[in-house]
Backbone:
């Protein structure tokens, strides 16, 4: 305890959190932030070496960590992960559905999206979160409480040119989350994080976004800036916060134009160019 | 990485701490380590008593602070209290705008003077406070033509407290709803305007909350049947979001509304 009682309420000591896609980037940053706040972890991803590395970093913080190989698009694999969590910790307090991202044929035009390409895109970015939520919710209800944090995107709120699977899945995830809240309140709080332009240590993405010069704040975000938001949402301070989308995007969605972030100042400073992102690319 | 939400060393001013939400915000900021000045929304004795008791709570936490009676729609009152915050607390890192003048009447019965008063306090008061805070939060332009919007500031924060009536209508609430919606879009526009100054501008949208002036007993009973949580919110349930948005870790979050309404807006 400190003389700052509200800061103690951000702590997650004794809580158990599952983070999917925890092998690198944002999933790793969220895992480390939750561990820093006191939680014990289950980190999952498809690549063993990466989650083992994340688990080592969590344990270095003095927290317990289970590394489980899991493909979120395979419900048997998801169910096995949750069973392993219960076997190890006997409870699940927090689920972070972070796994997702670009899938094969990401930017295909509609005629070039095969049934298979569509299915993989939706499975990776929507169905995986459904499988994980379905598997943990009985345990949360049994305990009488739980927090689910789903990672959506600016593309869940706005359209994209030749961006069909990702936008549909991320938008679907938003209303899936809202329906969770309608069904399981007040025991479970389910909220969303919508990151703006976060390159997740990928220099090619950072270059593609031109270092964030189109973002109102003029820069890209870092995973370390996103992770504390997960701590807040996982904490006891969000008892009455349910079905909300926390947009962390340097001002992108407050105004401006698609995809996430371009919001020209008026009048436009010369160094920002025309403000037409497609043309600038 | 270390996750730190502490506000130690920061100075905050809460306009409208005589309302339940403003008061909860002020106490949360003080609990997290900030020194906090608070004001009333209007010059009423009842509000002054609440603001003074809020200041007592802040002092009990061993923080610096003060309470001042102001009219949130009065430009010199607002300028004066922001100057007082700077001189007594040392700076102004966090401005919380929570002026709240509940007003409900059928539109055909609202006089132009009543309409203007509702808009003046609930919406224009927020503009006045942001305008006055700019003199502290933004670096003055050396050329003297206003404010240098490209200068990196101290990372100041503006947090506007609104209700879900900024997003949904309410019969007989036209003036209040219009003002609340105005604050929401003022938040977005100002966030973009100041995006490169280090000042973030966000809103917290509170759901139906215990002690809100606009809720009658009949409405409360109805809401408790209808809301997903089967209860109203408690004022201190906005506390975590206030501290999160005010903290250094929220530097990349701007122009957003954080709704804390127990899922009421998800309801069809």
Residues:
């Amino acid at each position: 305890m400190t003389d700052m009682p509200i800061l103690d309420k951000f702590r997650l000591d004794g809580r158990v959190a599952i983070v999917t896609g925890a092998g690198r980037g944002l999933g790793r940053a969220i895992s480390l932030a939750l561990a820093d706040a006191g939680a014990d972890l289950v980190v999952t991803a498809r690549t063993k070496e990466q989650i083992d590395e994340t688990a080592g970093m969590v344990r270095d913080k003095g927290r317990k960590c289970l590394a489980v190989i899991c493909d979120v698009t395979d419900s048997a694999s998801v169910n096995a992960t949750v069973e392993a969590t219960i076997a190890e910790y006997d409870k699940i307090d927090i689920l972070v559905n972070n796994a997702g991202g670009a899938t094969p044929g990401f930017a295909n035009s509609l005629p070039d999206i095969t049934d298979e390409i569509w299915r993989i895109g939706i499975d990776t970015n929507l169905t995986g979160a459904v499988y994980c939520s379905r598997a943990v919710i009985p345990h949360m209800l049994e305990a009488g409480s739980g927090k689910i944090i789903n990672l959506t995107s600016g593309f869940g709120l706005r359209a994209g040119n030749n961006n069909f699977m990702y936008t549909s899945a991320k938008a679907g995830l938003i209303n899936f989350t809202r329906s969770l809240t309608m069904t399981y309140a007040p025991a479970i709080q389910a909220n969303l994080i919508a990151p703006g332009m976060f390159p997740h240590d990928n220099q090619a993405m950072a270059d593609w976004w031109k270092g964030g010069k189109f973002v109102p704040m003029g820069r890209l975000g870092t995973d370390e800036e996103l992770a504390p938001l997960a701590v807040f949402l996982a904490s006891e301070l969000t008892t009455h916060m349910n079905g909300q989308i926390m947009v962390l995007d340097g001002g992108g969605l407050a105004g401006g134009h698609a995809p996430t972030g371009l919001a020209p100042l008026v009048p436009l400073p010369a160094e920002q160019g025309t403000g037409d992102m497609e043309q600038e690319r | 990485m270390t996750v730190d939400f502490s506000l130690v060393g920061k100075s905050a001013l809460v306009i409208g701490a005589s309302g339940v939400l403003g008061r909860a915000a002020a106490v949360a900021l003080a609990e997290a380590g900030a020194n906090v000045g608070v004001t009333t929304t209007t010059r009423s004795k009842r509000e002054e008593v609440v603001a003074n008791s809020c200041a007592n709570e802040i002092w009990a936490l061993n923080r610096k602070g003060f309470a001042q009676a102001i009219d949130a729609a009065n430009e010199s009152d607002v300028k004066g209290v922001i100057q007082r915050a700077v001189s007594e607390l040392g700076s102004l890192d966090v401005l919380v705008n929570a002026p709240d003048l509940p007003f409900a009447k059928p539109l055909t019965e609202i006089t132009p003077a009543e309409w203007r008063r509702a808009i003046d306090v609930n919406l224009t008061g927020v503009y006045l406070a942001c305008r006055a805070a700019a003199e502290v939060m933004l670096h003055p332009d050396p050329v003297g033509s206003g404010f240098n919007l490209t200068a990196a500031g101290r990372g100041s924060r503006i947090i506007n407290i609104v209700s879900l009536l900024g997003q949904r209508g309410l019969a007989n609430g036209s003036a209040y709803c219009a003002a609340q919606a105005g604050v929401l879009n003022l938040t977005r526009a100002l966030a973009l305007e100041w995006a490169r100054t280090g000042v973030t501008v966000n809103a917290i949208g509170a759901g139906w909350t215990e002690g809100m002036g606009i809720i009658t007993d009949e409405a409360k009973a109805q809401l408790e049947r209808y809301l997903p949580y089967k209860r109203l919110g408690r004022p201190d349930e906005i506390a975590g979001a206030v501290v999160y948005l005010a903290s250094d870790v929220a530097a990349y979050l701007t122009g957003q509304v954080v709704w804390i309404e127990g899922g009421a807006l998800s309801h069809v």
Residues 89 and 266 of chain A are 54 Å apart (CA to CA). The radius of gyration of chain A is 19 Å. DSSP finds nine helices and seven strands in chain A. Chain A has a mean pLDDT of 90.
